[in-house]
Amino acid sequence: MPDTSTISLPGSRAGRPVAEPTLSAVDQHRLWEELAHGCEGCGDPLVRGLLATGIRKHATFANALAALIGRKLGDRSVADNALFELVIEVFLADPEIVAAAAADLVAIRERDPATADYATPFLFFKGYHAVQSHRVAHWLWQAGRRHLALHLQSRASELFAVDIHPAARLGRRILLDHGTGIVIGETSVLEDDVSLLQGVTLGGTGKNVGDRHPKVRRGVLIGAGAKILGNIELGEGAKVGAGSIVLESVPPFTTVVGNPARPVGTRHSALPAFTMDQMLPPIDYMI
What we know:
Belongs to the transferase hexapeptide repeat family. The chain is α/β, with parallel strands linked by helices.
């Protein structure tokens, strides 16, 4: 692996603030300092070495992220040092990818009650790793390097059990909580501030070609095991209950649940992707 600590990256635009809860603009230098601070106080010598290799030996957030992706996705066919250099190339071409990765990390810290620092999700959360691997693969796909993009998709699917087609479009501040079993199809769109739990599928119906996958608007929360099928829209602030099968578009700020999913309760005003509230209003069941 080459020395990754000395490669510099141009500054990126700061993260955009959101309405609820308030997230300050993502300052990558400050985030990097907090990442390094999260390494302090660990008494386990093996973990100290891991933290030093994963964070402290690098000069910037971008360098550490590129090295992380290289280590995770590298194999006999494409070595980790070659992947590191590829990722740096992508970051230099589009610094917005690094800014989005920083914003994703802040989103995890804000929304996941199991996260007490930035170092933990950066090093250990495969949902985060899957999203950042996809951001690189998507850039390659858009640049016409499609076989290489598909290679990264395949490696990420093998390693993380998260399958995101490299053509899918993801916004900022995306949270894949746990990550296991998430599938996001080719023409899917996730806007900013979306949270998905494990086992979610954004898929086609199996009958259509072309634009055939869901469009997920800002602030949506999709519960564990839910399946969203077809070129339908989950409106801003919608919530999908765990295990639901969604076959029709969902209006904004509406909760749906069931198989097939149906609206329940009254319209809410909060963005559930921020609150991560997966509870449902009282439901009258009919058998």
